[in-house]
Write a structure and sequence with these properties.
Length: 338
């Protein structure tokens, strides 16, 4: 069995590609060997920084026999063309979330990778944080009893920090604004902890930031098990903040960025602090990807789930537009549209 580091190439050179390249450096399971972006200057700078080769074209990169896999951080609306090309060339793909901007593209990406027999992994690192792993273990062990409710918040301060020329802050490139860009991490965590989301009500607003995209969004989520959860996402807040409270019949877990993780069981008066040390979630997901390629294992988040995850946010967008609850199954079936 080949246990050598998986040889990867980075495409779509931007700030997140640097974050992932730094994670590759921290791993002994992957090695960055090449990169490509349309700007030759950016590609050279990236190559010099990370000690890899700058490919002359994407076609040349995909033809390079040393490249086994692609780390794809291109804009959402070109995920389909870039990922399908990589799959056709026999390259495995680690793709940043969301899988695409449309359900059709998400499905096409998934099927192309399946048909080519290549591994497709999606970057949903938040679910891997140690506090969420601990909560999941307790849920599975029955500590919470029946899950009834959850509330979540993911907020960042982007005032004066955005580039309106970037696809990340344009409605065409990132429909749903803050909810698709960062809120999707916590819709994922809510599904991970409480189970599949069946229906969504959404409200979106643009309150502080310039441009044409929502900087504040809220979702009311109904899960298959009957539990309800709420999610607020904001780019208009004064500070960075994360919150995830999980309520069960027998126990409640409280997590927030400033106070960490606490648990209180039925009949107790004071929550107990739970130690949850920081873990390297980015390296963990990349190592899992490499292991799936080398040993044929499974990745935690693949194309089918990522397409469903996209459908949850799309349901929220449609709900805000139409003023009604939207079923996730209808979005996936194409029965709910703009």
């Amino acid at each position: 069995m080949d246990e050598s580091p998986l040889r990867v190439a980075a495409i779509g050179i931007g700030w997140w590609s640097d974050v992932l390249a730094d994670a590759v450096r921290r791993s002994d399971k992957l090695k960055l060997v090449a990169c490509y972006t349309r700007s030759a200057a950016k590609a050279k700078d990236f190559a010099d920084k990370y000690g890899c080769r700058a490919a002359a074209s994407y076609e040349a990169l995909l033809a390079d026999p040393e490249v086994e896999a692609v780390i794809n951080t291109t804009p959402n609306d070109v995920h389909r063309i870039t990922t399908c090309a990589a799959a056709a060339a026999g390259k495995h793909i680690f793709l940043d979330k969301p899988i695409a901007n449309s359900i059709a593209d998400g499905r096409a990406i998934t099927e192309a990778c399946r048909a080519a027999g290549v591994v497709l992994a999606l970057g949903y690192q938040r679910r891997r944080e140690s506090h969420f792993r601990w909560i999941k273990q307790q849920i599975d062990a029955g500590v919470f009893g029946r899950l009834v409710n959850a509330e979540a918040n993911i907020s960042r301060d982007r005032l004066g920090k955005i580039d309106l020329g970037s696809w990340r802050y344009q409605a065409a490139g990132m429909p749903g604004g803050v909810m698709l860009q960062i809120g999707i991490h916590y819709t994922d965590v809510l599904e991970y902890l409480l189970g599949p989301i069946r229906a969504v009500r959404g409200q979106f607003a643009q309150l502080v930031l310039p441009g044409d995209n929502p900087d504040v969004a809220s979702l009311l989520l109904q899960h298959d098990n009957g539990a309800l959860s709420t999610l607020n996402a904001s780019y208009a807040s004064a500070s960075e903040y994360y919150l995830m409270n999980i309520y069960g019949k027998d126990a409640t877990a409280y997590y927030d960025l400033n106070n960490g993780l606490r648990l209180i069981k039925r009949g107790e008066q004071v929550p107990v602090s739970i130690a949850s040390p920081n873990n390297d979630t980015l390296v963990e997901q990349l190592d899992e990807f490499a292991a799936a390629v080398r040993r044929g294992g499974q990745v935690e988040v693949g194309g089918d789930y990522a397409t469903r995850s996209l459908a949850v946010v799309r349901a929220g967008i449609l709900s805000a537009q139409q003023g009604r609850q939207i079923e996730v199954a209808d979005v996936l079936a194409g029965l709910a549209s703009d």
